Amino acid sequence: MNLEPEPFTTARLDALPLRVAYADEMAAVLGDPALHTYTGGAPETADELRARYGRQTAGSPDPGVRWWNWVLRVRDEGRLAGYVQATVDVPGAEAEIAWVVGTRWQGRGYAKEAAEGLVTHLLAGAGAGTAVARTVLAHIHPDHDASAAVAGAAGLAPTERWCDGERRWERGAGKG
User: Fold this and answer.
1) Cα–Cα distance between 133 and 51 in angstroms, integer?
2) Can you list the alpha helix ranges (DSSP code H) found in 18-135?
3) DSSP label at 33?
4) Is pLDDT at 130 greater than 60 in this prediction?
């Protein structure tokens, strides 16, 4: 399995492996405090993102875990609009995913498109021809209807399992 994520595309988006160089543009994309309503925290500065992106691109210290992060570029605009990420448990063949689309780009279906593309990418082999994960999951705040809709569009279904106040949504390779 590749240590770094492979790029992938959807109808309107290019998912590009995260690079520290994206920090300045992403600070503007992610600058709305409303993006943190359900996740907590506050927008990070470009310097803070550079530091975080440096840690993320260095990879997990656990050899059985891959930290895969992509920025989302809207192809027609040539601009970044958000990100998707997957924490892949290699031995367990499980990937926990998340997505964020900047406020300016919300309401256009980009989050659904990106999440669907990410799930397909992970279950289909992430460019390597063999499935990276048998199970893809996400944890979603019970009041975050938009994220629930995105998860559903990506083929994930709510389970009865909870973690830190968020419901676990899940999809196996044979579903969806």
Assistant:
1) 28
2) 23-29, 46-58, 110-124
3) G
4) no
| pLDDT of amino acid 118 | 97
- pLDDT in the model for residue 172: 82
Nearest by Cα to 7 from 15, 27, 83: 15
Q: How far is CA 92 from the centre of its chain?
A: 19
φ/ψ region of 79 (left if φ > 0, alpha if ψ in -120 to 50, else beta) reads beta
Percentage, residues of the chain above pLDDT 70: 93
DSSP conformational letter for 103: G
Among 23, 129, 134, which residue's Cα sits nearest to residue 69? Answer: 23
Q: How confident is the model at residue 131 (pLDDT cuts 50, 70, 90)?
A: low
Asked whether the beta carbons of 13 and 75 are under 8 A apart, the reply is yes
Q: Is 8 exposed, middle or buried (0-12, 13-18, 19+ CB in 10 A)?
A: buried
CA–CA separation, 72 and 13 (whole Å): 6
